[in-house]
From TrEMBL:
Xref: Gene3D superfamilies: Metal-dependent hydrolases (3.20.20.140)
Protein name: Amidohydrolase
Keywords annotated in UniProt: Hydrolase, Lyase, Plasmid
Keyword Secreted: no
GO molecular function annotation: carboxy-lyase activity; hydrolase activity
Signal sequence residues: none
Source organism: Mycolicibacterium madagascariense
Domain called Amidohydrolase-related: residue spans: 6-266
Organism domain of life: Bacteria
Matches recorded under SUPFAM superfamilies: Metallo-dependent hydrolases
One Pfam entry name: Amidohydro_2
């Protein structure tokens, strides 16, 4: 491929320390040893991945320092998907210049546990969603199963750009195709895109993962390849990183070459207006 392969989501973090403590109520991390930039870089080089969108995990707290530092040091290799105090009106007032920081490409909301409706109401009341739309800040929202939430947002804020993280799936209690089917109804809204990320976490089959391939075909048919983004969620990926890349590169025969380029990175770069990423080939 002559276009970059870009991972739409990788959690990176550091161990809790006196200088950088985790919250007292932090959930258990996905793995005992933190996934830091040097290790990620090795995985990317081995798998042929050009760039990655970085996100601090919830167990580390609402921190952006590590991902922003990586993005600032290598903006053609790393971008930052940041946490934000969405219910704070004073913080919302600063969104006008938010994307002026090198590598700050979007904001992530995790709405898969706790008082989801309360968090959503606070973000609406603070003016967060209106400001994100006005200042063209893409949002990446993980609200598995809450299709009403995505629809509510795009109907009330039609200029918002929202990515549905992990195709809106959280567990493997049902088949992957059954799990993503309700998501397809949101494709009619041009402001909604979807991450085809962490998908091996939701299947019990082996390589070359036919249900993952079929899910990608369904998503591309509904949303178009320009709104489907490949991603790994590497820190909990149950298969080798290079194997996941291989599945999308060599086992998606029903995608055209142009569609495959978009899904593997081109579409994400355009969606986020992420400039300066070039193929290593």
């Amino acid at each position: 491929m002559n276009t970059p392969i870009v991972d739409a989501q990788v959690h990176v973090w550091k161990a809790s320390s006196p200088d950088r403590p985790w919250p007292d109520d932090a959930i258990a991390p996905q793995r005992e040893i933190p996934l830091e930039i040097p290790e990620l870089s090795q995985h990317m080089q081995k798998a042929g991945v050009t760039a990655a969108l970085l996100l601090g995990p919830t167990w580390e707290g609402a921190r952006n320092d590590y991902v922003l530092a990586a993005a600032a040091s290598e903006p053609g290799r790393y971008g930052a998907l940041c946490r934000f105090p969405t219910g704070d009106p004073a913080a919302v007032e600063q969104l006008a210049g938010w994307r002026s920081r090198t590598g700050a490409l979007g904001i992530r909301m995790s709405l898969n546990r706790g008082d989801v409706r309360g968090t959503l109401a606070a973000a609406i009341s603070s003016g967060f969603f209106a400001a994100a739309a006005a200042h063209h800040i893409p949002l990446s929202i993980y609200a598995p199963g809450r299709y009403w939430l995505y629809e509510h947002l795009v109907q009330h804020y039609p200029d918002l750009k929202i990515t549905v993280d992990h195709a809106g799936v959280e567990t493997r209690t049902e088949s992957l195709l059954t799990a993503i089917e309700p998501l397809l109804a949101l494709a009619k809204y041009p402001g909604i895109a979807v991450k085809a990320s962490a998908l091996p976490c939701f299947v019990s089959e082996g390589y070359p993962f036919p249900s993952i391939v079929d899910a990608v075909y369904w998503l591309v048919a509904a949303f178009g390849a320009e709104r489907v983004f490949w991603g790994s969620d590497l820190s909990r990926l149950p298969i080798p990183y290079s194997q996941l890349v291989d599945v999308f590169l060599y086992h998606t025969d029903e995608l055209s070459q142009a569609e495959r380029r978009l899904v593997l990175g081109g579409a994400l770069l355009e969606w986020l207006d992420w400039r300066g990423v070039t193929s290593a080939e």
